[in-house]
Amino acid sequence: MNWDRLMRIDRRVIFLCTAVVIMLPLIFPFELPTGIQRPTRALFDTVDHIDRSKQCLMICTDYVPQTEAENQPMTVALLRHAFAARIPVLVAAMYIEGAGLPRDAILKTMAEFNARARTSADSIKYGRDVDFLGWQPPPIVPILGMGKSIAESYPVDFEGMKTDSLPIMRHIHNYDQVGILCSISAGPMPGTFVAYAETKFGVRIGAGVTAVSVPDLYPLFEKTHQLAGLMGGMKGASEYEFLVKQKYGVGGRMRATEGMGAQSAAHLMIIAFVVIGNVAYFAGRRKKS
To answer: Does 229 share its domain with 266?
Structure first.
């Protein structure tokens, strides 16, 4: 075998192989066996045990398009869980740059459920089952303000409706009626919610963060128990998708699960090239000696 030729593979060949290996699982999705981590299971169980008649799920987002691949599936998975379990959902954006992403997640997930609905009671209605509160600057103001009144912190929602006039707000006033607040973030915002909302008002906090942020937040789940649950990166999102599908059987594209297939295939390809490169290097050196 020509080991020297293997050592001189054109990098464009490697780039092409990477593109093919990533694209094929996205075009032809497949599900890999999913092992559920304890932080993801804890978040799912906490949301699942919300008192639907008295409490709501609140999702607060502060991610932007750069981390959409990891964060958006988390928001969609939480919305599917709440819609399937008939849990009222309030969504707020902490930063204006990414406010369109949770709105898009709400509209698409509503359309997904309403396509299967047979009656008005089965459908998901904006203002009755879900409301997008929108954005209020700066983040610390609504975080503290919602401890007193959510409607006063967000007097008008993203669609221009008076918040306190919506049916969903009839029994929801402040954090006392929030079963858990899930911060879906590309930064340190979950820690801010822990410092100001959990410590001051006692509301339970969950988080969904990019993979690089997990080590910073894991002690808040494992050691201090200030996080009720945690989704970590695309893996955590795919686990939550699996749990929702397993219990409620809801359909729709599972983008995190599809992404895990592409990611795993790319990792295997990289390992293969590393092994080939090392074998070629040592075999070529042995041949020369």
So the answer is: no
CATH no. for residue 46?
A: 3.40.50
Range of the domain at 236: 32-253
Identify the CA nearest to 109 among candidates 237, 242, 243, 252. 252
At 115, the pLDDT band (50, 70, 90 cuts) reads: very high
DSSP SS3 for 144: helix
- In the β-sheet with 89-93, what is the strand arrangement from edge to edge? 130-135, 89-93, 56-61, 178-185, 205-209, 227-232
Number of domains comprising the chain: 2
User: Residue 286: is its pLDDT beyond 90?
Assistant: no
Please check whether residues 7 and 49 belong to one and the same domain.
no
Q: Parallel, antiparallel, or unpaired: how do β-strands 205-209 and 227-232 relate?
A: parallel
Nearest to 8 by CA among 287, 284, 288: 284
> What are phi and psi for residue 121, nearest 5 degrees?
-65, -30
Rounded to two decimals, the pTM is: 0.90
pLDDT band at 1 (very low <50, low <70, confident <90, very high): low
